[in-house]
Design brief:
24 helices, 62% helix, 0% strand
Amino acid sequence: MLVAKSNYIRRLILESEVPDLTRIDLSEIPGGAEIFEKAAKFCYGVNFDITVYNVAALRCAAEYLQMTDECSDGNLIGRTEAFLSQVALTSLSGAVFVLKSCENLLPMAQDLKIVQRCVDVASVKACNEANFPSRSPLNWWTEQLSILGIVFFEKIISGMKSRGAKPLAIASAIVTYSERCLRDLVRNHSGIGKKSSDSGNSDVRTGQIVLLESIVALLPTEKAVFPVNFLCCLLRTAIFLGAGNSCKNELEKRISALLEHVTVDDLLLLSFSYDGESLFDLESVRRIISGFVEKEKSVAVFDASDFREVCSTALQRVAKTVDAYLGEIATCSELSISKFNGIANLVQKGARKVDDGLYRAIDIYLKAHPKLDEIEREKVCSSMDPLKLSHEARVHASKNNRLPLQIVLPALYFDQLKLRSGRDDDRSAADAAASARIQIQADASLLKENEALRAELTKMKMYASDVQRNQGSSSSSSSSAAAKGGFRRPKFFSSVSRTLGKLNPFRVGSKDTSNIEDAADITMPRRRRFSLS
């Protein structure tokens, strides 16, 4: 019966040079031994079921065995073609299951147009379901498409686009597909997915990179159709897998365009490793924020407004998000001062009406890094304007011993000026802030002069004590040393006195003379610079 229904087997027997042929090699038959067994059952009239799962393989096997109607009426090719047309390709599910089975039947399934027929039916049915749902849940069709490989999924999405599918429908399909195919890396938009157990396998990682880059290439041009958390999950996956720069840049641009809707948790997804214990990547966050700020600048130029003075509501919202984000990452020991300030300074000062959020982040950073010296603490605080703190924050700052003196004094002096003025309107506050800055600069200069004077006095004391020790060390040279010292001492002290006279800040007033001994009789006016009374 096989010879009667299969032209391929008949030709092998006729062309064989072996008189009694008992073995034929059919190892290359599509679908393997299981499908050949069904084809043999068909030839001998044994009943079996043709389903959406095996019809493509049977069609390819029938083509391979040349089981045409010319050999026998109602042969296997005709039966499988009838099933495809009348049963399998009449529904979305049937077309998807047939297409899935074709993944192991290439290129023959492609040559027989089975793949293209399935893609066309699936694209049309998916568009219809997206526009006019026929069952619940409404996105059931996206679950159907997610079982396909990326090659066939791309074909269906391209078909949907060519048929005018809405961007939201395509985005829904892509989100579902990504969560299913990259479930170990992208899960439920929560960012709690764990690292794949096969991440160390280079072949598996390469396949994941190809899959991710193919998904990103399918994203519609409309950037607002995707949840921003989903885009952040994709970007973190790209960073973790080491995807190409074009893939990461595309995701960063999309997130930057939606930055005003990004939450602190979304930015933390990009910053921490999957275990949440160590900093992962800050450069992507920097580029995202910088891209958003540049876009706002271009809008301000187009509107002929001063970007430093007029900030949009979106930029103000982003500034609050950035401050809160800095507060979350400030506890990381590997976060350097330059990286902290680099992110803080991305948003210009005018975008922050008050610097309370930035002050909170700075305070957390100083608390988490207690070994910073005075200069380093001043660098950390350089991105904050102490005169833009709220009254509650200034009160807290005045009692915060972690802050450098250069930060505490402006806040206290600003409050003092406001109390003296007795007015709370914006103009008086601005005038008070301006005068406070001028006075603080003068005080800072005076403090530096005081420090220089104390250092000079300390050197003089050390020199005098060394001379006295040298005088008592040798009795033979004491008389000559005394003579020389008696001759030179007035000259040395008069030189130091002239130097101190040039450095002396007490001619214009000072706040601190507690460390100066009775080296000179100095009378200075009493000044109360930061009296809170």
